[in-house]
Amino acid sequence: MKETKVDDVRIIDLPKIKDSRGNLSVIENNTIPFDIKRVYYLYDVPSDAYRGGHAHKKLVQFLIPLSGSFDVILKDSIKTKSVTLNKPNKGLLITSGVWRELENFSSGAVCLVLASEVYDEDDYIREYKAFKNYKGL
Ligand code: T46
Asked: Which of 58, 95, 124, 133 could be bridged to 4 by S-S, CB 3.0 to 4.6 A?
């Protein structure tokens, strides 16, 4: 959506069920505010790599750092915010209409992404200038 803002992006805490065998976290229907239509994951990302660098018109996503850490830079064309994801029981809900960049991946980092839509290249805004136009600036 054109009017969504960086402040609409939020961390969602996942339950962490802990015992002597380790931890278990779970995502159920009501944990995130969309039905999951696609799952993908980023891994073996070089530490100097930069991913993202785009916004989505419709897609909403939930990012979970299954292993390691990385930074997510969020922009709504007015405000910029940086979030470090480094706990597998804390995911980041990214609304549509928000520019995102992923960087500073630690060795062995794995980013699991739950997505509200199937893959559609037409949903991407990959030029920052086009993003600013889209946001009406
Ligand atoms: C996002 C961040 C966090 C597919 O064929 N199917 C898919 O479901 C996806 C996600 C990508 N692709 C193809 C499209 C490109 O040829 O895989 C290639 C790499 O995709 P992209 O450059 O978009 O990858 P990232 O890591 O920059 O962005 C991805 C998602 O595309 C994006 O929605 O928010 O991860």
From this structure: 95
